[in-house]
Amino acid sequence: MKRYFTIGMAGHIDHGKTTLTKALTNVDTDRLKEEKERQISIELGFAPLHEDEEIQISVVDVPGHERFIRQMIAGVAGIDLVILAVAADEGVMPQTREHLEILDFLGIRNGIVAITKIDRVDEEFTGLVKEEILEELKGTVFEDVPFILTDSLSGKGIEELKQLIILTLKERDTRDAKGAFRLPIDQVFTVKGQGTVVRGTVYEGKVEEGQLLKIMPNGIETRARQLQVHHQPAKAAFAGQRAAINLSGVSKEDIERGEVLVSSEHFSVTKTIDVAVRMVGDLEHIVKQRMPIKCHIGTAEVMGKIVFFDRNDLSNSEGEILCQLRLEEEVVAKRGDRFILRRPSPQETIGGGWVIDPNGEKYRFGQKTIENLSRKKEGTPKDRIKAALSDDKVLTVSEITAKTSLDELTVKEILKEEDFLSINSKEFTLVAIKEAVEEEIADRLNEFHLENPMKQGANKAELLQAMQNKYPKMLVEFVLNAAIEESAFQRKGQFLQNKGFYPHVPKSWQKRTDNLLADLKKDGYKVKPFDEYYASAGIPENLKGDLKRYLEDQEIVVPLDAQYYWHGDHFRKAVEELKKSTAAEFEVGNAKDVLGLSRKYMIPFLEKLDTLGMTRRAENKRIWI
């Protein structure tokens, strides 16, 4: 399958990141008037870098000025490889070091150093800059990354850098497109004639045009009306891609940067998070118990407090510290998510880490809490099994043992607990996943009923097809069949309905439909073509197909052929009269004598009886069945 990657440009202000992005992509990512005037990047800029049959790569140009550190964190949090730009005429600067620390805290392990503006200095000076960078990178995750010498104006090293990026990413795994869709929103805007658009990097899963979504943490329901990837219309966007999504039913004022667009409600919305934190190497000020902090997670920026359980302050880095963040606003988070902590005043990055448990509770100060957090950090066997099933939705026991490194006996014992569900004798899922699938089926059916109130329901095969990109088909069928048995859904042949739904004419057209039926009934057996009744009723033409099908399904009308329809009462009356007045076998003439109809109506009526299996034709006669 094709793989999708986003790479980032990071580094000190005026070290040539935007110019380097333009040289690589032929796109100027500085769009704002203020950015042009001040020659710095304020908002995140994006550009397509490369696409072939195997991979697609886009670039995010991250602002480098200290004031815009929050945008830098939002941009870097969703990327797969970082280009660290260091200007040959300045070397390592304060924000270069801060960016390196942030990249480390965010778990970015893939990188390339681009020494920029090499035409401004001689070869000897460039060598000194490279040695300085190597010294700075010692002990960091970027210690062994490759170097490329570049000059964006003359084009030196640009093609070499581009090829190195492509080669590096072709050897990397892409993000997981199997899980539930999640996109932290970093831009919200409106497009004239289209409405509200959000933009961000797809962290995981995939989104399709027309898909039902929710904006968390507020739970606002919406739909992906249109998608764009690299300013080009797309039917779907996958993990690792930059995507712009046109949302229906919401205004720009309903959404804020930092909120998250998801396909499932089963992401945790939280204010209290158990975390593992590392502090920067040279803290300028002591980090005190319950000190105010600014937490950057995904694209959210939230004030809160840091709570220690084994100390009252921290003056230097001591490796990973287990503690808790208590935030002032809700955020969307899951185990393993990365975050950055900043001091609000004086502003500085103080540390970063990862989420152990997004649903933390209030704990007592002391070693016992640290021991509990330590166990939670390692993850219980149950946690590991739940994580594996969350990713793949359905697994066999042998597949779970392979993914969790647990022994088969332990796996089988844990799978007996109430959080897990056996689909058959071999495969398992989570109760939460079963509930999520059932909820999505209900949402899709409800949406279908709202849009098609006169139809029997959604076609089962089409529903399974629509959901199989997100869930295995056999899982959806299992959940669907179980829900039908429990009467959560109703099945009418090939059609599915939500409990309590019945096909009906919309209230806005009920009176005109009643008038149509009254006119049809008044004309008895000698009716006009149905289209004439429809036109006289003044019902919109685009409803005709659904209305005819509804009236037929409910046996309110009966089509003799494609042109003539009888009211259902008259059709049943005609059958009753004919059956009462003829023998087991009868001819057309006998039927005409009973009903007094011309061949114009009689022949279609008798053929309809054949079609319904009420009679069987034998040469010139018909036999009642």
Automatic annotation (TrEMBL):
Domain of life, per lineage: Bacteria
Which keywords annotate this record? Cytoplasm, Elongation factor, GTP-binding, Nucleotide-binding, Protein biosynthesis
Q: Domain named Tr-type G: which ranges?
A: 2-174
| Protein species of origin | Cytobacillus pseudoceanisediminis
Q: What is its main location?
A: cytoplasm
Q: Which GO terms describe its molecular function?
A: translation elongation factor activity
For this entry, the protein name equals Selenocysteine-specific elongation factor
InterPro entries per UniProt = Beta-barrel_SelB, EF-Tu_GTPase, EFTu-like_2, Elong_fac_SelB-wing-hlx_typ-2, P-loop_NTPase, SelB_WHD4, Small_GTP-bd, T_Tr_GTP-bd_dom
Pfam families on file: Beta-barrel_SelB, GTP_EFTU, GTP_EFTU_D2, WHD_2nd_SelB, WHD_3rd_SelB
Q: What does this protein do?
A: Translation factor necessary for the incorporation of selenocysteine into proteins. It probably replaces EF-Tu for the insertion of selenocysteine directed by the UGA codon. SelB binds GTP and GDP.
Q: Which NCBIfam families match?
A: selB (TIGR00475), small_GTP (TIGR00231)
- Matching PANTHER family: ELONGATION FACTOR TU, MITOCHONDRIAL, ELONGATION FACTOR TU-RELATED
Q: List localization entries.
A: Cytoplasm
